[in-house]
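Title: Prediction job returns without error message
Component: structure pipeline
Severity: low
Priority: P3
Assignee: unassigned

Description:
Job completed but the reporter wants confirmation the result is attached to the right record. Sequence as submitted:
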Amino acid sequence: MSDDSESPPKEEQTTDTESEKIVDDGSRGDTATDVVNLPLGDDWRTDDAAKHVAAHRRCTWILVVGAQRAGKTTLAGALYQQFLLSSFAGFEFAGSETLVGFEKRCHFLTTGSRLPRPDMRRTSYQEQTKILHIRVKCLQSGKLHDLMFMDMSGEYYEAAAGSDDDCREVNLWKAADQVIFLLDGKNLADLSKRHQAVGDSGQLLRRCADLNLLTSLSNVDVLANKQDEIDRADDDGEASAFTGEFLEELDETYSDRFARFRTHRVALMPETFGRDYGLLHGVDKLFPTWVRARREFPRMKLGTQSSTRVFDRFRCTSRQVKLAND
């Protein structure tokens, strides 16, 4: 070969300083030590949620309770679907770090699932506790709110209704800013199943209150879901009246035991959409209070130190000041 043949172009050499640069939002930024960890998008375990979001921002933790097929996963999934369409109840979607988790749960709602009718993927017993994250922005104030939906299989709650030990095993009661009990309206409309449905739900709520798992600091809502199915199967209004009597009984029993207790009828994802029932029917009045729900803890009163040790008195005072500033 002759010396005149072309040689391949030499690669440009970069300095150590240039190799340490990283691209952030389209421009050369800080050094490689300032790495941004991007979320994988799947649902979280409780410790993952605390590490990724709760450690940096004040979050609202929402525990949705109910038997299998009551609509626990449907509540979070329907909210996600609604925010993809438009704003809801004065809030708009501002992001999520568990988008993959939502899409997995909502896959059966799409035509790609090839199911004869839309459905929500249920949470299996083996999955234990999973966290789904939604960030919303208030249209009026522009303030951002992070919502953490704690998703568990209904089998845990069915076991908790019949045993004190199993009820304590659900160790999320006191961590929740908002607790939502769901009643399956399909069972309420069925004469052969309604008494067991209200019996199990009432027993679980009573057990949580008696075991002090839900206290005067708790915000509790009881929702009779699938109101559309109750109305469709209720020719003489008997099922609707039965549901109303049960909700009134709960109001009389628990209205003074919790920080806030309410009962409502909703249809989270009606089988037939129309003028009477749309997506998240009845939830628009409740959602703003869920966003702003806070489980308030009692604050220590100043001047109650009983110890004569200077260190103990200093520790007590520092604790009081921290609580007052939180």
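Comment from assignee: result matches the submitted record. The domain at 46-291 is CATH 3.40.50.300 (Rossmann fold).
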